[in-house]
Amino acid sequence: PEVLEFFRRNALSIKEICMEEFHTVFVTSCHQVYVCGHGQGGRLGIGKEKPLLIPTQLPTRGESCIHAAVGLNHTLLLLSNGGVLSCGSNLHHQLGISPYAEHSSTPRYVNINATRPFGVISAICASRYHSVFCTSKAIFACGLNAGQLGCRDNRMDFFTVPQQLAVVGRETDLITHVTTSLGSVSYATSSGDIFTFHQFQCKKIMRCPDIVKLESQGGHLASVVNGIEGGEDLKITWLTKRGTVFIWQEKRGISKCSIGTGRILSICDICLRNDTLLMVTKYGEAFSGLMKTRETGVILEKVTKNSEIPCWCSVNIKQFSNMHRALSITSDPKGKNIAVIQAHPSNPVGFRRANTRTSSIASHMKSFLEQASEYDNLHDITFSINNTKVAAHKFIMASRGCPWSLLQKSSVQVPSGIPLVIFEELLKFVYTGDSALLHLGKCREPFLEIADPVKKLAEAATFAGVEELQKRLQSLRFENGVIYCFKELKGLPSSPPMCFDRQLLPALCDVDVVCDDSVILKAHKCILAARMEYFNNMFMSGWTEAEMGMKIHLQCSSRIVNWILDFLYTDRLPESLGCEDLDNIIKLLIASDQYLIDDLKDECAIYLSELLSLKNCVMILQLANTYNEQSLKVSVMEYIAYNLNAVIENRYLEFLDDALLSELNDYCRESLAVKFKDRAICTYFDAPSDEEIVEAALEMSFTDSPMEFPVIADEENDRQKLGSSGKKKTPKKIFAASPPGPVFSPSESDRIRMSVSVESAFSPSSSSFESSFNNYEFPLLSESFSAKAELAKSPPKQSVEPRRVYPPKLSQKQRKKLASEFEEKLDLNQDEVKPKRGWAKIELPPETPLELSRSPITEPAKKIQEAGPNLVEIIAKEQQKRTNLRKMTTKPFHLTQMEDSAMLDLEEFYNVGCSYEERITITRVVPLNVAEPTWMPLSRRLPVL
Asked: Where is this region: Disordered (predicted)?
């Protein structure tokens, strides 16, 4: 799936999508309409029949659109005032306009005079040959009457204007849902009854309460006008509040959809197209399922909570990738194109422009005014008041309305009637836009010594030419140490936000800023020093840059420097910056961090939080962590936690640092609704505890060699009878680490035969027993029972080993003689030579009694390991060869062309033709493990005619 970038870039939220074979209509949350597709017949309503590849807004005559519906060649729009607009082809009278016209390339109002007695139109539907308009009490339709409109009147094959349909139901019922398809019109009432108009009849389907959505597909047409007939079987599906989906089919009756998944899906939206059911769950997942209904003849007339549906419709679903916030789903009539409306990925994120920082330009200018003195290098004008000099700056005074005639001199004498404290309040208003005398209530202590401080401040404002302050003081009066507002005024007028114009008075510019691209920008030292600590230290400390006419170099492009200067003068960034490239905003944030502009850095963080997406969230998170922007970092972590499924599915977190990934992991665990710390592994009620398992492990004792437990002679004598082949069977032997019970001594002949069998053959059970100790620290009981399964398997055919030659059959006396001689040899060599065993030797080091090691493999084991592959391995290799051959033969031609182009590019990149010191060869790697192609005769592939 791909995101429509047009709506994302323009910040448009879509609430409804209507798709047809040739065009699509979008309705936004602000009730605007956008269309795109093929415009033949005027179906787009833009006044032309040209195609539109990019969604274009459709004018709706100044009204808001609340709902849309589309047919194959026409479009319907339901407006907020109850009117309906239609455009497109009117060949079958489906537009409902009067007088009749063959087509309309612009939206025109539908003649809905017949619907006014029944209330306002609440829903509209459209199909290929007709249109449907629904109120809470009645249903109206216009277009071709081919059985889907219910009534049969041979004199009227078309309804030019909407006509009322004969709705069936109780008088007290309201129509809650309506839908239409090629050959039907279906609706549901408030009591849960579902009806459909099909083949000139109104049929009741069933009663099902709590219907959320109703969909229909197919239907047969019965019309001889222009040869229109045919169709397909009618299907009606609906969704209940409990998330259950039912489907009614014309020939099979009602079926309850059984979703083929291992978990319960809480479905909130459905869309039926042919045999495909599209679904959306409340968790934002989107699925597509193929329906298969079992044949049955049972038809239900009513569905209740306790009723059982005898017919089930299995739906084999497949989840759409990269869809985790789906709200609704729709598709075209053939189901080839699917559209899904998703919730915005940053909906729950609270870090937005509504929570922006407060402006700091007033506090910066106040600090700068308090810092100014007649001895610094930045002031360019002084005011003398009673032998006291007050330093100021011409550009700031001129920006606040002071006349240029007052600022031409470097020293100005203030009239004697204006006290020093009053003139300081005047300068405070000029620099910050606020003053203590502009607040209602009791005056502060310095102003109580003056008879009327408000009047004195007004005289000072008149002297300095600050008209804004004069207007604000006209609404105030001073009485008995308290400032009042005149009764006719409800309150003080609000002051505009504090800002300066960089382009104002270019003659007062006293510094040049040189960018990386050699662009020179003019600026004022007073503003730079007041707003940036970097320039304040530079100009106040007597550096060479503080001299007149010096140039300042900033390691940024002219665009970045322009944005920085605009922010310093106005304390805000231009609105168009949000639509700029993300890289420029990142560069601006880096520059603000480099030059210690914290306010600009926070503003860039707000812009970046608004541009968050699944593709750039990890990159922005690393950026916020690198430049210590905590507010942005928390915002991105919250964004990732909300969209964790999509981020993990697209493998975006693979590029994140380990430390930052660990921090993100902790944040997600704390922020998610399901607390991970509250989760616990639940065991069975009778499962042993960890302490019991440890105690059982410590009680286990292992010896250096496995003990031999011979079987009981009486039982084995019965088992060793001659089988069908006439050969005797070798008795089974049991080996274990510790004796589980009492040991029974076997007979003499059994013990001899068991000893001989150890030397003559290698027991397959030993390998299973050995692997149980090799793979796990604690032996599993299930491994000891695998010996029988191993004995039951036939050994693989060994072509390398020579064929075993068995000794000739001996008489009873000869066997007894050989047995006695062998027993004597065993008694003599028992302490010197250990018998050979075909299993591993168990060794237990004293420091780790549960850690088992393997003894060297004996010679018989080596021979078996060196044997050829078994049948399973051979079959697996052959299947792999066939798979590789199939991939080679079915490889698309365009991939081969891409490989050839890549090989040519590599040859050109490495300069293969002119490289004389080394030899470079570029070839296509072909898998070696490929089956030989099998050529089939032509007679087997083609039928003989």
From this structure: 714-748, 792-814
